[in-house]
């Protein structure tokens, strides 16, 4: 039983530390290992900055090194972001900052508490190919088998050998009940200066919605019962800013039904693990029951990871993902089934 409880125990202790509270009995090796895997070590270092007396020297030293390296990496990525926004702006393209790119811009070049793997930008579909050409003029090339233009796809991954991270260029975001494009999102943005360049910054609630949309619906965590702890920490930070998150405004980004329930589950997870409460209407008694069942499922799945596939299949039957059984060819359905059942992501728990 102890082995089965280990993932839940490590997550419980890690979340306590992320809230600035060091448990009396803690397995530092397990906590730091999970923090590294879920990419929250920089946030952990900041949260424990005033608790050094309660941290073993070796662990404290590791946290300091990670924070310093993250700060150095983010300075480079901030420079990269400013350069890309300026290049696009020179051609009349104002990109929307998404997810980590938005957080980095808000926190500035000295940000040391958030690890970024890439920079997500969004442009209008009609400007997508021109945006790829602009970024190509400053050295960016499609990564892997990515097309030279965006075409009919959601976006394209671009990179340069000299950079620490790439650029994910989007012109639409998959959304339950439809798709939101740059025009839809830009209405939720305001101009944001990056040196002499200007980008579009989503509102606090819109940015929070993007994290939930990405994890719960695009990556299927709603059905798979997984937690992206780094993005959960991001939501907690946004909720902790002056003014916090407006539950009603956040809910307005998600159509009633499946999408709204996915949001409710994410907010319940935020409260369960990081003690941050953002209230929304989950959809009456039925919605609250589904949220409670999802909390129970996630807890059991942490104890017994082998139950994930069975729970995922059951969740498909109860609340099927849009597109899995609707208006899709056999090959597309097969790819989606394999992705949601077999694709593993080490950064999630």
Automatic annotation (TrEMBL):
It comes from the Bacteria. InterPro entries: NTP_transf_5 (IPR039498). Pfam families: NTP_transf_5. This is Nucleotidyltransferase family protein. It comes from Novosphingobium lindaniclasticum LE124. The lineage of its organism: Bacteria, Pseudomonadati, Pseudomonadota, Alphaproteobacteria, Sphingomonadales.
């Amino acid at each position: 039983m102890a082995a089965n409880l280990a993932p839940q125990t490590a997550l419980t202790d890690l979340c306590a530390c992320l809230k600035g509270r060091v448990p009396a009995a803690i397995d530092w090796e397990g906590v730091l290992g999970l923090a590294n895997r879920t990419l929250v070590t920089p946030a952990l270092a900041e949260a424990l900055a005033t608790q050094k007396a309660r941290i073993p020297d070796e662990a404290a030293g590791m946290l300091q090194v990670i924070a310093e390296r993250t700060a150095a990496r983010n300075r480079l990525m901030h420079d990269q972001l400013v350069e890309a926004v300026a290049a696009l702006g020179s051609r009349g393209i104002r990109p929307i900052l998404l997810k980590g790119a938005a957080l980095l811009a808000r926190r500035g070049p000295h940000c040391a508490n958030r690890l970024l793997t890439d920079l997500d930008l969004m442009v209008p579909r009609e400007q997508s190919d021109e945006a790829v050409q602009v970024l190509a003029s400053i050295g960016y090339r499609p990564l892997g088998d990515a097309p030279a233009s965006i075409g009919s796809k959601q976006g394209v991954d671009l990179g340069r050998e000299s950079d620490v991270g790439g650029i994910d260029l989007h012109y639409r975001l998959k959304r339950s009940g439809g798709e939101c494009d740059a025009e839809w999102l830009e209405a939720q943005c305001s101009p944001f200066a990056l040196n002499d360049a200007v980008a579009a910054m989503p509102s606090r609630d819109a940015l929070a919605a993007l994290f939930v949309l990405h994890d719960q619906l695009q990556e299927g965590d709603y059905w798979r019962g997984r937690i992206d702890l780094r993005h959960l920490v991001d939501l907690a930070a946004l909720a902790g800013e002056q003014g916090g998150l407006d539950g009603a405004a956040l809910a307005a980004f998600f159509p009633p039904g499946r999408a709204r329930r996915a949001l409710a589950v994410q907010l319940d997870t935020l409260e369960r693990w990081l003690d941050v409460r953002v209230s929304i209407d989950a959809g009456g008694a039925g919605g609250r029951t589904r949220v409670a069942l999802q909390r129970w499922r996630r807890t059991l799945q942490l104890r017994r990871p082998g139950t994930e596939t069975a729970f995922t299949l059951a969740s498909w039957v109860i609340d099927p993902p849009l597109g899995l059984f609707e208006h899709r060819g056999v090959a597309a359905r097969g790819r989606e089934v394999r992705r949601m059942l077999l694709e593993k992501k080490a950064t999630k728990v």
